Automatic annotation (TrEMBL):
Residues 50-69 are annotated as: Disordered. This is Toxin-antitoxin system HicB family antitoxin. It comes from the Bacteria.
Amino acid sequence: MASPGKKSFALRIDPAVWEAIENLAAAELRSVNGQIEFLLREALARRGISVSAASQRQRPSEPAEDANT
């Protein structure tokens, strides 16, 4: 069951990649799910994308204030 506030989805992944992530997760005392999220956040940060900025872009823009009022 997904944690509250978290999005769940199916992921098809190469078995060798899965095994590598499992091993890394065990070495770093994380769950595989936690390790995948950690790696995704790390990859986004390397590209200069902050998670909070990415979530703000998904929000609908606020209506522009009318200059005549």
